[in-house]
Amino acid sequence: MSIDTLKNALPDYAKDQKLNLSSLAMDPSLSAQQLAGTFIVSALASRNAMVIREIVEEFAPKLSAEALGAAKAAASVMGMNNVYYRFTHLVGGDYPKLPAKLRMNVMAKPGVEKVDFELWSLAVSAINGCGMCMESHEKVVRHGGLSTEQVQTAVRIAAVVHAVAVTLEAEAALV
Is 57 known to be catalytic? Predict the structure, then answer.
């Protein structure tokens, strides 16, 4: 199992991350598609090759080809949007009033249920630290019927996957 590969790669001081990976991988609060997609988008946003490889190996078989494509698209488009909208939010001035002029067509037709795509976009936005995007996507998923606990689970997955990537990169740099 690929989650086990990641857990085995983590140092002893990261025991909490090991435990969190295990419990979140079996969290019942999200649908199977939501859970798998959230793990995958979080891995992609982590930018760590090992984390991406192992998480995708673990969770891609649990998604349809369309859902896997949508998860990849969510990570990709939010990689762009989080930079742009974080800039407009933090700098302010006239920038938020200007049209973005960035193609985001996938958001209109992501290939999966809108709430799932928005949840995945929220997870990536949490990793990338875009407050404006987090607020927007949280509002959409809550309006779409997800509970605060479901939103929290997605963000917990993002936090743990990101922490695993940070830890593994730090350990690799220290070798």
Answer: no
